[in-house]
Amino acid sequence: MSMIVRRLSRAATAGLVAAAALTAAAHSAEAADTLGSAAAGQGRYFGTAVAASHLGESDYAATLDREFSSVTPENEMKWDATEPSRGSFTFTSADRIVDHAQSQGMDVRGHTLVWHSQLPSWVSPLGAQDLRTAMNAHINGLMGHYKGEIHSWDVVNEAFQDGGSGARRSSPFQDKLGDGFIEEAFRTARAADPAAKLCYNDYNTDGVNAKSNAVYDMVKDFKSRGVPIDCVGFQSHFNSNSPVPSDYRHNLQRFADLGVDVQITELDIEGSGSAQAADYTKVVEACLAVSRCTGMTVWGVTDKYSWRSGGTPLLFDGDYNEKPAYGAVLSALGGSGGPGDPGDPGDPGDGASCTAMYTRTADWSSGYNGQVTITAGAEPISSWTATVTLPAQQSVSSLWNGTPTWSGNVMTVRPSWNGTLAAGASTSFGFTAAKNGSDAAPTVGTCTAS
Ligand code: 9MR
């Protein structure tokens, strides 16, 4: 019953949500130097996995809202989270993510409807007929609640076995319902929300191998028989044991040639520095080379909350600083930081990076002094560029230890005498601003280095 009430209220607020999305889209169009806006320039989305429990952390939310145009709930839409006991749905955490995404004009990927893992304990003991009923009811419950609000759903996740056989993975669904459970899940999903793209999602299918061949054969069969499938997700969890395959682009393309979209759904690459950046570049370039590769999602915002946090596989470090991999992705997407721009990892000075941190050092009723500290990353740098966006009313009367250029209320600052920094060393520039009625803090954006 509570599910039905909530479903109606989601639909009733759709008009408000659409208005908020427009505002957010207009806002992000101004920022040409974020992952989401750069990807949009290539006709793609750039998303991240999100955990509802971190949305209250201001740096987490600020990074998410600034950089990403799509979200995937990392755990909140899984079966154990949404239907912990049969027929009783809870959407509180998932709704929090969807509401947040909509308020920022972001798309939502639904993850995931039918998966052998994170299943509540009541599912496995069911007999075949009962399991079929429960599977379809679960799909209908989730997709009905979010009808019209999900860009793509991972309808079935990880149904094929690892290793060289290309066989189906043992699971309650496979073992009791046989191969046909996947087809049935997709047919139920299409009827539940005809507007959502329906994806099959898996890992270790990123290059051509026995497992990806088996998925390929299934998708080909589905297309030939009219089973509704729109997309294939390639999770793309990479590390030294499982590197970015050399035939990654070719593999994406052969699936696209079957008449489905392809999406990179859970990207992370363990490592650091320029080597990690180069691997990220390969992935982004592969997606951009395949016209039906409609978007990319990294599996988390910051290394500190990654499921593989020890491997530092993401684009922002634990303090939300942009890593070299961030610059590489932005550059590959054609954003600022591209070839020839300071800080581009493909240029000489590869690996150069910096961070910028703002503090207010003096304050009086009509004005304040701000200071931005620039710190070089793991390699020495010979120059840096930092952007500071001021609240619209404020104006800067003087600036020292830096050279500003202006575009509207965005101040881009380069060194005056203090461009050269040893690895890890810092310098700072300062400025005096008139408040003109606004006491808000300026926003410091990307720091790039060469
Ligand atoms: O990142 C998720 C982690 O927080 C969970 O503990 C884990 C539980 O299985 O699932 C992780 O996400 C997985 C995703 O849902 C499916 N593909 C593999 C992901 C990484 O394990």
UniProtKB/TrEMBL annotation:
InterPro entries membership: CBD2, CBM2/CBM3_carb-bd_dom_sf, CBM2_carb-bd_dom_sf, CBM2_CS, GH, GH10, GH10_AS, GH10_dom
Residue span, CBM2 domain: 347-450
Gene3D superfamilies reported in the protein's UniProt record: 2.60.40.290, Glycosidases (3.20.20.80)
Catalytic residues as annotated in Swiss-Prot or TrEMBL: 266 (nucleophile)
Region (Disordered): 332-352
Signal peptide: 1-31
Biased composition (Gly residues): 334-349
Protein name: Beta-xylanase
